[in-house]
Structures are given as C-alpha cells and as structure tokens.
Amino acid sequence: MAEQPELRSLKEGDVFNGFLLAQEVAFKTSAKGSEYLELKLADASGELKAFLWDLRAIEGDMDQVAVDAFLKVKGQISVYNGRTQLRLDKVRHAQDQEVGDFSRFFPTSQRPLAEMVQELDATIAGIGDPWIRRLLELMFVEEPLLREAFCKAPAAKSLHHVYLGGLLEHTLSVLDMAERACGHYQDLNRDLVVAGVLLHDVGKTAELTYVRSFGYSDAGNLIGHISMEADWINRAVGRIPDFPEELRLLVLHIVLSHHGRLEFGSPVVPKTPEALLVHYLDDLDGKLEAMFRGIREDAGQGAWTPFSRTLERMFYKPRWPKIP
Amino acid sequence: MAEQPELRSLKEGDVFNGFLLAQEVAFKTSAKGSEYLELKLADASGELKAFLWDLRAIEGDMDQVAVDAFLKVKGQISVYNGRTQLRLDKVRHAQDQEVGDFSRFFPTSQRPLAEMVQELDATIAGIGDPWIRRLLELMFVEEPLLREAFCKAPAAKSLHHVYLGGLLEHTLSVLDMAERACGHYQDLNRDLVVAGVLLHDVGKTAELTYVRSFGYSDAGNLIGHISMEADWINRAVGRIPDFPEELRLLVLHIVLSHHGRLEFGSPVVPKTPEALLVHYLDDLDGKLEAMFRGIREDAGQGAWTPFSRTLERMFYKPRWPKIP
Amino acid sequence: MAEQPELRSLKEGDVFNGFLLAQEVAFKTSAKGSEYLELKLADASGELKAFLWDLRAIEGDMDQVAVDAFLKVKGQISVYNGRTQLRLDKVRHAQDQEVGDFSRFFPTSQRPLAEMVQELDATIAGIGDPWIRRLLELMFVEEPLLREAFCKAPAAKSLHHVYLGGLLEHTLSVLDMAERACGHYQDLNRDLVVAGVLLHDVGKTAELTYVRSFGYSDAGNLIGHISMEADWINRAVGRIPDFPEELRLLVLHIVLSHHGRLEFGSPVVPKTPEALLVHYLDDLDGKLEAMFRGIREDAGQGAWTPFSRTLERMFYKPRWPKIP
Amino acid sequence: MAEQPELRSLKEGDVFNGFLLAQEVAFKTSAKGSEYLELKLADASGELKAFLWDLRAIEGDMDQVAVDAFLKVKGQISVYNGRTQLRLDKVRHAQDQEVGDFSRFFPTSQRPLAEMVQELDATIAGIGDPWIRRLLELMFVEEPLLREAFCKAPAAKSLHHVYLGGLLEHTLSVLDMAERACGHYQDLNRDLVVAGVLLHDVGKTAELTYVRSFGYSDAGNLIGHISMEADWINRAVGRIPDFPEELRLLVLHIVLSHHGRLEFGSPVVPKTPEALLVHYLDDLDGKLEAMFRGIREDAGQGAWTPFSRTLERMFYKPRWPKIP
Amino acid sequence: MAEQPELRSLKEGDVFNGFLLAQEVAFKTSAKGSEYLELKLADASGELKAFLWDLRAIEGDMDQVAVDAFLKVKGQISVYNGRTQLRLDKVRHAQDQEVGDFSRFFPTSQRPLAEMVQELDATIAGIGDPWIRRLLELMFVEEPLLREAFCKAPAAKSLHHVYLGGLLEHTLSVLDMAERACGHYQDLNRDLVVAGVLLHDVGKTAELTYVRSFGYSDAGNLIGHISMEADWINRAVGRIPDFPEELRLLVLHIVLSHHGRLEFGSPVVPKTPEALLVHYLDDLDGKLEAMFRGIREDAGQGAWTPFSRTLERMFYKPRWPKIP
Amino acid sequence: MAEQPELRSLKEGDVFNGFLLAQEVAFKTSAKGSEYLELKLADASGELKAFLWDLRAIEGDMDQVAVDAFLKVKGQISVYNGRTQLRLDKVRHAQDQEVGDFSRFFPTSQRPLAEMVQELDATIAGIGDPWIRRLLELMFVEEPLLREAFCKAPAAKSLHHVYLGGLLEHTLSVLDMAERACGHYQDLNRDLVVAGVLLHDVGKTAELTYVRSFGYSDAGNLIGHISMEADWINRAVGRIPDFPEELRLLVLHIVLSHHGRLEFGSPVVPKTPEALLVHYLDDLDGKLEAMFRGIREDAGQGAWTPFSRTLERMFYKPRWPKIP
What we know:
324 residues; homohexamer; alpha+beta; two-stranded antiparallel sheet
C-alpha cells in the first residue's frame, strides 16, 4: 500500500486518495427521491463521515460496499459546524491484499507489542511456584495460537481498552498493580495472584471478534469468556501430571469469581483474598482507563465529558495541577 | 444390625435401644453448673431431640460423640407439649461397620432406585442423535463412579428433593415434563432438551456432600456445580472424535444458563428455546416438589404451612377435592 | 373489495393499486422546504414504507390521512439497500365499508378459529367439577360478547402472540401444556388448573384495544386485566347459587397470582400448586412464542436475532438438526 | 367480671388474681428434666411474662391452656433486671363468658368510638357528588356487618395502628389530612379523594382476623385486602342504577394503586392526582403513627428506640421543646 | 425592547420580527450538499422550530449564533402537520442589553414574586423558637445574594417546578402543606418543620444554573445541593453564639434525609417525625405539580398524557367534575 | 493496677483475680426460680462467658454491675465443649481509676501508635501542593483533639479494623496502596489522592463511640461521618485565606463519593479518577482486612470460616504455600 495521510491530520480542502475501512454503510434516499451513499470511514487514527451524492461513481459491484470492507476512495475534505466530512468523487471495493498491514486501520495499543510480550514472558519465567509457572507456560508460551490471539485481542467490545492489544495492555496493567498490592498486603500469595491476573480475561480472545470491527463470537454469546477460560485451564491442567487438585480449584476460583458478583456474570463470589484482590484491581483498571480516556479524548467545551454509558456518569475534565 | 423400630413409630413410654445418627451434638451446662448432653438423633424415618443428664453414662471417648457419627443409645420416649423426646440412659460411639446399611439412617427417595436407573438408561438408549447419545453414554453409563454418585446424591442441600436419590428423581421428573413439552412445542429439538435435562444438575454429585449430613464440598463452594458440569462435558466431548463444535456449545449453553438469570449463578441467560425450556421446567419441578412436600409433611393445625424459606411464602394446605 | 396482492409478495417494479392500513403517518418538510408524506402501510402479510413526494396528489381531505385509517393508494415498488419501498402516485382516504373483511389487514393467528373454539368448548364440557364447569360455561359460552372478544383479542400489545386470535391461541397452548403437566404431577387438581388457565388472561379482552392498532384501553391503564378478571369471576360466581366460597378464593388466587411476583403486577404470589403451575406455564409459553417467532421471522444474516426487548437478549437462530 | 387491676399498674410484690389473655404458651423442660409453663399474658394495658413452676397447679384440662384462651391466674409480681414477671401459684382455663367485656383484654384505640363513627357519618353525609355519596352510604352506613367490622378492625397486623379501632382511626386521620390537602391543592376533586380514603383499607376488615390475636384470614392470604375492596366496590356499584362507568374506574384506581408501587402489592401505580395523594397520605400516616408510638412507648434509656422493623431504622427519641 | 407578540399567539402567515432566545442551534447539510440552519427559539410563552435556508442571510459573525444567545430574527409562520414553524429571512446575534428584561424569555412562576417573598418573610418572622428564627433570618433575610437567588432559581432541571421562581413557589407550597400537617399531627414541632421545609432545597440555588438555559453547575455535579445546604447551615450556625448543638443536628438531619432513601441521594434516612414529614410533603408536592402540569399542558387528543419520565407513567387527563 | 494474666492465656483450673470489662450483663432466673448472673467479660486479649450462681456474692450496689463497667472479679476457669468459662466467686464494681490504662481492656491495633503517627506526619509534611498540605496540617496536626481522636478511633463498629487505632491503621494502609497506585497510574494527582485518603473516614472519630464498647454517637446516627467530614473540611478551608474553590470541591468530592454508590450512603458517585481510586482502595482494604482476620482468627475445624455478615459469604481458610 502506498503512503497515505492519517485521517486525523486532514484539513479543509485536502484531497484524500487512499484506502479506508467502512464502519457504517447506508444507502439513503433524499427528499427529492435521489439516492446517495453515507459512510463512516476509518483508519487507526480516527474516523469521519463521508458522502457520495451520485451512486454512479461507484466502481464495481455496489453490494461489496459493505460494513467491514476496505474501500478505495477519492474525495475532498470539507468542514461544517466543526465536523470534518469527506465529499467523495469515487468509491470502489478493495481486496484485503491491496491494503497491506491491517494495523493501519484499527485502533491499536500505544504500548509497543514487543515490550508487552517481553513483560509477559518475564513475569511467567519469574514465578517461583513450579505448578503455576508450568500452567502459565503451557497456555501463554507453548500454545502459539493462543499467544498470538492474546497479543491481538481488545479487552472489551465497548467498555475499556477497546483496541488491538488492549487485552494484553489491560492484563499487564492489572498485573503491575497486583505486584504492588502484594508488596503491601504481604499475606497474599503472589504467584497465585499473578496466575489469576494473567488468566482472568484470556477467554476474551475467543469471546470477542476483532479481525475487523469488534463484536461477540457465537461462542462468546453462548457460553462467555469465563467458561472458556475455565475450560482452557482444565485442559492445560490435564496435561500436567500430578497437578495439585487444590491449586486447580484455587486458580479456577479466581477466574470464575473475578466479576465479583453473580449479577455481573460470575457464578461464584470471591472467597479467597487472592480472588478478592484480582476482582478489585481488574474492575478498577477498566474503569480508570475508561475515565482517563474519556477525559483525554473529549474535545468538547465545558468541564464535563458526555455521559459515559460504561460508568453511567459524566466525568469532570479539569485536572488539578500536579506539584512535584 | 439387629432390627430396631423406626423413630417415627415410637410412642410415649417406649424404650429404644439401637443405632442412630447424630445430627447435632451439644454439651451444655445447666443453671446449677452441671453438664449434660443434648442431641438431635435421626434415622431415615425422622429425627428427635435426646438428652443425657449424666455425662458419666457415656461409654468410651466423649470426643467421638460428634456430629455425623453413629451412636448406640438406650433410653425412653417422653412427650412434652406435643414433641417427642428421648431421655437417654446410655450412649456410646458406634463403628460404621456395626451399623450396616446406611440407607436406614438417611431420608431416601420413595421411588425404587432400579426403576429410576432403568428409566435413565432407556432414555439414553432411545436418543436418535448419535453425538448426543454418545456423550450421555460416556458420562452416565460408562463412568461407574459418576453413575453411582448420580444415583445417590440429593438434588440440593435444603431447597428441594433433599434426600438420597433426590437428584436422580428430580432429573427424571424434569425429563418426563420435558418429553411432554416436546410433544407440545414441536419445534423443540427433543434430543438436545434431553441432554440438557440429564446434565443440568449432574455437578451436584460433587458440589454436595452426602455421605452423612448434607452440605457443600470445598470444590462446590469454590467453583459450583455448573462449572463442574461444564468441565465434565468438555472432557467427555474431548473423548469423542469429531464431536461437532456447535453441538458442544449448545449443550454447554443449556447447562450454563439453566438457572435462568445471572443473579442466580448462571453466567449466561438462555438464548435458545431448548435452554429456556430446561430452565423453566427445572425451576418449576423444584418449587412444586417443595410445595407439595411442605403441604404433605405439615402436621400443624390451620390452613397454612409454616413460612417456607425456599419459596419465601406460606402454602395453603387444604386441597380442593378432585372430581374424576 | 377487489383482489389485491399481498405486500409480502411484491417485487421491485410492481405496481400496487389497492387498500392498505396506515400504521404511521408523517408530513415532513424537505431541506428545500417542500412538504412530503411518509407512511407506514400494512396488510396482514407485512408492512412497508411509502412516500408521496407531491402532496397535491392526495385526493380529498388531507386530515383524513391519519393513523389507523384505511387508504386507497397507487404506486410502484422500488428497492433500496435491501428494503422495499412504495413510491406513491395517488393517495385517498377509504371508508371502512369499502375495505371489506378487516382480517386482511391485521396479523392473525395461524390456527383456524373454528378449531380453537371447538377445543375451548370441548375442554369446558369435559370438566368434571360441576362448580368449575358452570363458572366457565357462564363466562365463555353464555356471554356472547365476551366469547366473541376472547376469540378476537391478541394476547399482548407487544410481548408475545401479538395478533388477532393470539389470546385464544396462547390460552389453548398453555392449556395443552397444563393438561400434560397434570398427567405428570398427579396431585394437581386438573379442573382447577384448567379454570385458572382459561381465566388467567381473559381480562385482556378489555385491557387491550384491537379494533385497529393494538393498544391499552382507559380501563386497562386504570385497573389492569387482572382486576377485570377478578371482577368478572365474582360477578359470574354471584350468579351461581351456593357456589363454594373456598373454590371462589382458589380460582381468584390463581388469576391474581399468575404474574408470579408482586413487581410484575400480581397483588399476591402463588401459594397453591395449581397457581404456581399456571404462572410458570403462562410465562414459559409467552417467552417461547416470542423466541420461536423471533427466530422464524428474522431474515437477517448472522446467527443472532436483533436484541429482543421482551426477553432482553438476542436469540441464537441456527437450529441443531433434529434426528428422529 | 369483678374488678381487677391493670397489668401496667402492678408493682413488685403485688398479688394479682384475675383474668388474662394468653398470647404465648410454652411447656418447657428444665435442665433437671422437670416441666414448667412459660406464658405471655396480656390485658389491654400491656403484657408480661409469667411462670408456673409446678404443673400440678393447673386446674382442669392442661390442653385448654392455649394461645388466645383466657386464663384465670393467681400469682405475685417480681422484678428482675428491670423486667416485671408474674410467678404463678394457680392457673385455670376461663370461659369467654366469665370474662365479660373483651375490650379490657385487647389494645384499643384511644379515640372514643362514638366520636369516630359520628365523624365518618358526617363526612359521608357532607359529600356533594351524589354518586360518590350513594356508594359510600351503601357500604359504610347500610351494610351493618361491614360497618361494625370497620369500627372494630385494626389497621394492620404489625405495622401501625395495631389495636381495635385502629382501622377507623387511621382512616379518619388520613381523611383529615386529605381534607387539608384539598384546601391546599385546589385542583383536587375532594369528593373523589374522600371516597378513596374511606375505601382504601376497608378490605382489612376481612383480610385480618382480630377476634383474639391479630393475624391474616385465609382469604386475606389468598387474595389480599385490595382485591376484596375492589370486589365490594363493584358489588355496591352494581346496586346503584346508572352509576357512571368512568367514576367506577376512578374510584377503583385509587383503591388499587394506593400502595404506590407494584412491589408493594398494588397492581397499578397512581395515575391520577387523587390516587397519588391518597397513596402518599396513607403511607405517611402509617409511618408517622409507628414513629410516634415507637418514641412514646420506649421506656429504655438512651436517645434511640430499638430498631423498628416497620421502618427499618431506629428513631431519635428526644423531642426538641416546642415554643408557642 | 420594543413590543413584540408572544410566540404562543402567532398564527400561520404572521410575520414575526423581534428577539428570541436560541435553545438549540444546528448547522446541517441538505442532501444536495447545501447548508442550512435549524433553530429552536423561545420566549417565556413557548418555543418553536425555525429554519434559515440560506446562510448568507446571517448578519455578523456566524459563530455567535449559539445556544443560549439572544437572536434578532425576522420570518414568517407556517404550519405543517399541526406544528408551527418559523421560516426565517434574517438572523443576527443580539446583545443582552438590547433585549431588556430577561424574564420575557424564560418560563416564570405564575405567582407574583412580591407575594411569595412576603409569605416567606412573614413565616420567618412568626417563628416562636428564637434559635430557629435567627438561623432562618441569617440565611434568607440577611444574605442578599442568597435571598435573591432563592427568589430566582427553578426547583429542578427537569422534574418539577422547572421555571424561574419555581424553587420559592415549591418551597412555599410544601410549607403550606406542612403547616396544615402540623395542625393535624399535633406532636410535631412546627418550628422545626418550618426550618426543614425552608432549607431543604435552598442549595438548588447553587446546584443549578439558570441564567440562561437550566443545567447543573460544576459544584452541583461534584457535591450536590444537599451538601451545599449542610455547609451553609453550618456556617450560619457558626455565626450564632451558643446555638444549641442538638438543634443543629436536628435541622441538618431533616435537610440531609429529605430525599427519604439512600439511593435517592440522602446520606441518612429520616429518623425523626419532622424529617419524615418533610420528606413526604416535598416528594408529594413535586410529583403532584408534575402531574397537574402534565395534564394541563398536554394539548394532545386521547385520555392520556405522553409518558412522563419524571414519574415513569402516563397520567389520565379527564377530570371528574367537582360538585360543590 | 497490679499485674494480671491475659484472658487468652488462661487454662482450665486457673484462678483469675483481677479487673475485666463487662461487655454483656444479664440477670437470669433458673428453672427452679433462683437468680443468677451471666456475664461476658473482656480484656484486650479476648473475652469469655462468666457465671455467678449466687447473687449474694456481689459486693456493693448490684445496679452498678452493668454493661461497659469495669468489674473486679475472682473465679476459676472451667472448659466445657471446647469453650472456656469463668465460674465466679466474687464480683464487685470497680472505679475507672482503679483500673489504670484502659488500653489493656480493649482490642488495639497491632501497629505501634508512635510509628503510625510518624507516618501520618511525614506524609503530610511531604505534600508538594501547598494548599493541600496546609489543609491537612490544620486538621491533623494543629487540632489536638481531632489528632488524638484520629489516633484512637476504630475504623468501624463491626465491619473491619474494629479496634482502637483501627481508623489510623486502615487509613495508612489505604494510603500505602494509594501511593503505589499513583506510581502505576501516573496521571493521578498524588497529593489530591493523599488528601482524599487521609480525610475519607476522619468523621468516624465523631460518628462512632469508643470510650468503652463501640457504637454510634447521636450525631453519627443523625448525620453520619461523611457529613461531618464535609463540615470539618469546610471549616478548615475557611481558615485558609484564598483557598482555591475548585480544590475545595475536588477534595469534598472525594470524601462525599468514597462509598462509591448512592445506596451505600454517598450523596454523589465518583466523577474524577482520584475519587474513583480512593473508593476502590478503601473498599478493598476493609474487605481484605475482614477476610484475612476472619481466616486468621477462626479456630474451627474445616476449610471454611463461619458466614461473614460483612462480606455475606464464608472464606476459604487453607492458604496455598508461598514459594519464594
């Protein structure tokens, strides 16, 4: 794929000619009865509305202009009422292979992947408890498909860390907090906590779909990520001779209970200190990320973000200045 | 064990000499400072309070007079204020082997076990879908330990079908209703429904303890019966080559969702007609059994049973006469 | 009324000339300030959007083009983005008498009415308990207005069985399941259950309006169908000399408690086995119908129906193949 | 019945010889195995614990010493740890006719009955709307049984106004507040409000039992007082030719909705200003009475009453001094 | 400002030339790509939609055509589908000083302000308890800024009494009911009740913004009106030497608990009769005002108002005729 | 006070002669009618039941043997059924001054007070933001009464850290975790977080009573600790000229919102990252402490603690061995 500017960098009057991902596609009829095309197009830097007023300017099969397809588009940027739009002259469907590296079209974690993977591996390698270390090696190191998916998946469809690599970034953020918490609450079993943190959302790799737009897989809707995680842990344990049954239950207990309450989808509530800790730190990390992101990304005037459906409140944006 | 009368048959003045199960044991101090022993003793027919006023009448180690132990006791029945009591003259701990058949000391299903097992086997043998039949055979026919436990476990600790064999009786009762429902709602996949019914509570065999008094196992408290069932189904599926993935998900979905709502411990809600049906019929059967039992067993005067904690209400006892 | 094609059968380019029911009517202003008319038109087979771009093409009084009126329209079918639309050339209000049989314009039960009425009558005639039989005869056989309404009403405004005849169809479906349940739970009083089933929603005939679009009557909003049913039962009982007071209470109890919980509008919870059963089977039938209908009617791609507000979830559409 | 002192007036050392109502009866066994009798005995002024240490002192049939029976007792008052007790020397069952006026044994409204009845009648006579006046006359004036019961019933089993005449007193208290509210919110239909107030709890006369101790009748448990009221209103309306249907619905609506929310047993929520007012004033009156009574009757030290289960809180007892 | 007609009085074809408040401002793009301006304009009598199809007709800076600005507009009234619209020929931003008296552009209490202030002052002057009187004088009489704001603020952003002066009107309405209630429940401390009523919502003056459109202030969102009231009461008390500590707590308790339940934002529930009363009368007054206003202002056909989000129900509009 | 052994160290047969705190006092009547005294006596190491069978052995005024009094007792230890008891020979009331250092009779934090105070002071001194530092100095350093109370109060009446010094220990524990969290989530304003942590429960010093047994003060019940804290912060801010209003709101917001949800008594929910963090870490610390304490202190057999009312669950006691 040739170089093309990022959407975020475009200004009024710029001509754009390149590939974009179609997030929304609507064929509409104007009041006069003429048809036009309204799109939401995206690359990794952002998204904008685009309009094609003459459908004859579509090259090739109109049916291929569909959600989650890549489009080759040409048009000009206009700005109305503060919002950037793209008035299109040409649209055609693009093959995936034309597009090259998908990562240019999806929001992606700010943290370098290699750094995160190294942190994951170092954490696993540093675990003292041989059973726990072996269990985690089997899953995160020796299963390449899971390892790859764990590096790619978002942490959620819409609540927090909604970008490629978000699951790993969220996991490592909880992990860092968990290490700190184990430094403070010294009765906690640190290795057990680490296992619980690394495993608590690993099923998201199969619960969510994230090849193109983010959604739920059939299996995700039918059984959910917690049940997947339990299954995978049981399979891995089955491959480790003499794995202690009590440890299996303790690890499963953290994973099963990490939503904290039955009404949030955990079939049991946390009954060990390690499970209680993982629940709190996971919940805190997701909500803090959503709050920081909401504050950072809101370009609007006024002291308050829009109402956040994730936390069911607005956030106060002004930050009291830090004094070192 | 020699013959001994059932507790339920005892009358004031009768002398009882035999084995009983200790359900509650309390060493108490009277107002005058003397110690005495207060027991709740049971056989399969019922239970009563028993008192030993002179602890010197205990033969052997006093510490062995403990909950869930069998005791050899001798004493006389007295009745105060409508309640039968046993005033003990002698108490000693009894070895399990002295006691013989345990079933004489625990409440047990009224339905003959052989009949129930035959019904289970015939149902499995009659399943048309080969994958579903194979899955059920693997679990209920070819795993002798699970089969034995499934025949013995109660259906719950306190809510409904609280007796040995209660799990199987409850399962078959739901099964019969499910067959009838499949006759009515003909779009239901009957084989899938049958699988869901047979599997929905099978984890109770390990969630509950029922060798002596009924309770929860450690694993039961830590991960719950639904997670156990999912694990066992996954293991069995893993032993059937080419088992269809979609069918695995559909069966798991029924099992995981059968409590109907997240706050009742299901990590997902029913999203297929079969899952919805199994949830309703399971819930109905448990509640109806509790209600019929409450009405049948309440010997009290008045039109109402005591407040049932299971259903959070009293039941109306008079039955309107049936006219054939 | 002359023959006219069903909406469902129309294809792009077809010319339609006939009567349709106006479900939605909106006079809108285009960006250029010209007015146009946007309609939702329906017959029993379905509904579609229709547009009239020139209001001068309305014959007669424009105010009569209103919701729930019949319209005579002429226009051509076009298809944009997968959705069929009708571009109108002519519109006029039609008198009810022009239209003929209303049933061609409203969704109607698939079951033949005569068959359902026969089933109702046979059930009542077959009741052994003379008091119960007499009560049901008085209400369902000897009150022609109620009988007629009971044959016509839908079962609900939006949740399940939302079509003419839906109330009777739902009632008979619950009845069939109830008969089957009485075969299984043999302590149930079958005649009492039948009475409860037949009466549990009879007040819907007055709670809902269904001459044109479905809605709630004033009385429906002010007192609700359960209170109406109780009133009607009391009136009928008042006409049967020596009707047993306990039976009156038992029948009322089923009706009053059939929503199962206070927060769903039942002033009492079920306290007899018969009331418990009717509640469960009613609830199950409504939800299963909504689920089967949602699955059957969703023409969309993908494995999941749209989010159902009735059950607050999506349904999984693929049906595992039945094997006989 | 000869004169006897009120329980409230008794002091340590006093000898009591007279009739009392048995509210609780328990035959117990002492640690030494001897039986004794523990009673809660009451007259209208209060209640106390009583003990009979030698059962041979019971004259006549021991089984007649039962809850809700009158007993003739002789004994002496002792005070331990601040609580007054009665140590009995003699106990025998007493016939109701020996006892004379029951009102001496049950808590009774402080307001003179005649005054309350006069207020009720004057209110009804003063209603301007002829339909509403006729409806209320039919129920409260011309049905002697209902009138008598309305004068006698308590307002609740345990929440508020729990004494004979409490229902009438509560009704009139709400009525007085309602008259005041109609003076303030002048758009309210005063006659409709009065009807709603007088009728809102009239079903308590049949929902509760209050011949001896207060409880729920079978009908009360099976259908509840709101459904009874609706039934009685419908019957009365049926006896008034041409009673306006809309008025019937408006009156029923107030009665049905007066618990304010579905989860409190109202099948509909208040949708007219009159219904909203009656709900609030009824709720306020019951809770204020409970709070004032709790404060007045608590003899304990400290600033707080015991936890009130009615309002789920303690009340602050010190009253800030009024300054005229 | 010259005279101009009220919006409510305009009819089709009228030409309007005057000042209006911009409540909503949207620059939109028509299907043909041309831009137009859609406004919601208001004066105290009402609001209407307005359209400017040619943006060149805007005089001066387009950015000043913004929400909460006054605009000088000229245009003609048209009526489509029952809704009045204004088709604009000219639009320009107007300075606040051109506009003159703001009260002509915002909904305002119907009660004359002077009358309400007199009632407030007379009530405070008439309080017998010197501490309470002094506290209220300090806040409502001697703090001119608070006094002015208390006269101007609405009672809420959207629930009830949503107009200038609404807070004072609501407070006096609750006050009048409270005086009546103290006449009925004579154990209430009337002066304490009066203090609670006057203070219960005084923080709304700072929680809400109401210079232009109504909203929440930053402080309102961050700490809420109840915490502001508590702060102000504490400050005022701090200026009254020897103010009794118990009275401070009793007044604070009413204010803190007046939402009645924790989930409605009260940190404590009412534990004194005075606090309970203030909660009920406040709640009743707000809901009754919302209901009466909903009924009065709904011009629609049919017996029911639109669904009220405040009370989560529709209201029944027909008023049963009063008979004097 | 002379030396006396700790209760925890006593063994069967030991004679105890010393001072103890009376936590419960009950004068009871034995079955034979004789009175005796049952006590719960405590020192800082624990508590036990004590019995005095002959009330004549009480020296001095019997009424002074009351809850929260110190008693001088002499008696002998006996052990029944695993529970240690004290059979008393002599009891008399003791003056507070006889007893000496109260800390010997109440459970007290394990952490040395001096160390904790030093940590508090160092934290405050180390705050970079001058406004925040000044505010905290004013409250924690320069108000000796508050400083003393803050060092003495428990953190709660029954939930967690229920011992003298518990409030300070809990606050410092949350503080340490908060510092760690600020190291991880670097966008947090650390000084603001520190202020929120130190202030979040400071009102407990006045909400609770802890001179003897722990309970709620009148002010605690009437307005709660959150309102007290807000008041104190406002007073302190009032003494700091030019304190920034936004900072006042931000600090108040953390304190007001730290219970996280309205139904837990916070009048607002956390709307800043700092407020969200303080809520989570406070909640986590209290629950973890309760869980660790529950596990540590449960001497019972079996893998599970008794049901914890604080967390509404049992805890799993076995700790998986840590491997360094």
